[in-house]
Specification:
alpha+beta
């Protein structure tokens, strides 16, 4: 999803009303249990990172019957009245083959973090995403530092965290490998952050 959001003052809508209304809008809105959440634009890194990741995924999954979708595609939480626009979603499920308005059976979802949405991406959205039985991995990507969190569903149906990061703001000394088990893809962390310029950390001094 994009980097900022605003809660609408509209009266609650049913899921059917939301889908019909959203199809007529010029901007995107997420939906949670009758509440409309308007979304606005984000930073350049927030836009660049999904491009990098979708490129890697498209090349790897070409010809394998999977859809790699960016943030214009909705994901529906089955039977929960929730529709989100993740930054990246992948479905390899035949039940999504002819989907037009939203997918329901993703195996991977990725969100790029921003200050205004991080708590929601980690909290409410992840709680809802976990209700999707086909979901195997949930990625949280920091756009200000080279840091990737992979939440992976294990054989016991519990979620494990793999944190991949660089202490430095470049990849001169280290470039750890990323492995996405849900699609069997490996790549260096630097490829996720290609063309992303990190701002140097500032150090506050006491007066």
């Amino acid at each position: 999803m994009v980097a900022q959001l605003k809660h609408s003052d509209r009266a609650p809508m049913s899921p059917q009303e939301y889908l019909a209304w959203e199809a007529q809008q010029d901007t995107k809105h997420e939906y949670e249990h009758g509440e409309i959440i308007a979304m606005t634009g984000g930073s350049i890194p927030h836009s660049q990172i999904p491009v990098n990741l979708s490129t890697l995924l498209n090349l790897h999954l070409r010809g394998k019957g999977c859809k790699v979708l960016v943030n214009d595609a909705k994901v529906a939480i089955p039977n929960k009245g929730v529709y989100y626009y993740p930054d990246i979603s992948i479905t390899c499920d035949d039940r999504d083959r002819q989907a037009r308005d939203f997918i329901q059976y993703p195996c991977l979802i990725a969100e790029v973090l921003s200050p205004s949405t991080e708590s929601r991406d980690r909290g409410q959205k992840f709680r809802n995403y976990r209700r999707i039985e086909t979901l195997q991995e949930y990625l949280l990507i920091d756009c200000d530092r080279p840091s990737l969190e992979i939440y992976r569903r294990n054989q016991s149906n519990n979620w494990e965290l793999i944190h991949i990061f660089n202490e430095q703001l470049n990849f001169d000394a280290a470039n750890p490998e990323v492995y996405l088990a849900s699609v069997d893809l490996k790549f260096p962390l630097s490829e996720l952050y290609a063309n992303v310029e990190f701002l140097p950390e500032t150090t506050e001094t006491a007066p």
